[in-house]
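Hi C.,

You asked whether I'd gotten around to modeling the 98-residue construct. I have! Everything is below, sequence then structure, no commentary in between.
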Amino acid sequence: MKRWDLTGLVFFAVSLFSLWFVALSWAESAEQASLLRIEHSDIQGAKRTRSDAILDLLPRPLPADYTQAEIQEFERRVRNLSLFDRVTVARLADYSKP
């Protein structure tokens, strides 16, 4: 009976590890599917701040692929500079001036 319990426990552990690996692979593929490619930027309203200083807040230099979370973090970092009244990071096709 002890041998069966040990075998069952090992099988359960291997199954659990396999399930975790599949879930991790699924999460990575879902993240890759939602990558946004940014080739260049159009920074507006930065009169005294160099565009390079703002782009330095990105996790990787342009051009690069970014996740939605990285874009949101970039927007938060720019907002935290407290240099601008309003901060919006958007695709140029999606952006409309107020």
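If it helps when you're writing up: The CA atoms of residues 10 and 16 lie 10 Å apart.

Thanks,
B.
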